[in-house]
Design a protein that fits this description.
Oligomer: single chain
Structural class: alpha/beta
Shape: globular
Number of helices: 8
Helix content: 25-40%
Length: about 210
């Protein structure tokens, strides 16, 4: 395996993407099909990380009621009154199955202001204003301060926010892992494309075996 892209699990962190009630639960207002089905794999990975003291960052979206912070392709819909991941709503919260046991409630105002919020031991939540987790956020500084050089991506809807975040991580020279059965919306061409930029793909079982070595 290429020395520059080989994952360094001793200096890794897990990034969960948009695994919030409004996007994940069956029948939710903005349900992304397939997300509820990958939550058990996500839970297994996160429990392994917690047991092995691997940092976890939950990256979320928040749409203000007036639409002022929403992507232009969805802004008109939110302005019309459709409430998706509205700050303070149950829909904006993380799916309960992926939360740490003794979690802190999300502070939506702080998150909107750019705070990366501590919610549990070696576990944080942060808000991203657009598709990618690095766009106008403090994520890169946060990771550099902790000497993290390998990122493990899991979560909701590969073709949008995970893929954008993966490319942004690649632009910043992180070693990258994507867990193909712990991310919704995955497809074979997409896997081929990210492999071509040096991303390593694992199954949940394979990743857990690596993390527990």
């Amino acid at each position: 395996m290429d020395k520059y892209t080989k994952p360094n699990f001793k200096r890794s962190a897990v990034i969960t993407i948009d695994t919030q009630n409004d996007f994940s639960l069956p029948g939710a207002i903005a349900e992304i099909k397939g997300t509820n089905e990958i939550i058990p794999q996500m839970k297994s990975i996160l429990e392994t990380c917690r047991n092995n003291h691997i940092p976890i960052i939950h990256v979320i979206r928040l749409y203000k009621e007036d639409g002022s912070n929403v992507d232009i392709c969805r802004r008109e819909m939110i302005e019309s009154g459709v409430g998706i991941v509205r700050p303070g709503s149950i829909g904006a919260d993380l799916v309960s199955a992926i939360k740490p046991v003794h979690t802190e409630d999300l502070n939506y105002q702080d998150l909107l202001n750019g705070t990366i919020q501590f919610i549990g031991n070696l576990e944080w939540a942060m808000y991203k204003p657009r598709w990618g987790a690095f766009y106008q956020t403090e994520l890169e500084n946060f990771l550099r301060e902790r000497e993290i050089d390998t990122l493990i991506f899991i979560g909701c809807n590969f073709s949008n926010c995970p893929r954008t975040s993966i490319y942004q991580a690649s632009e910043r020279d992180y070693k990258i892992v994507m867990v193909e059965d712990a991310i919704s919306g995955i497809y074979s061409k997409g896997i081929d494309e990210i492999k071509n930029i040096g991303v390593k793909t694992y199954t949940t079982k394979e990743l857990i075996q690596e993390l527990e070595r």
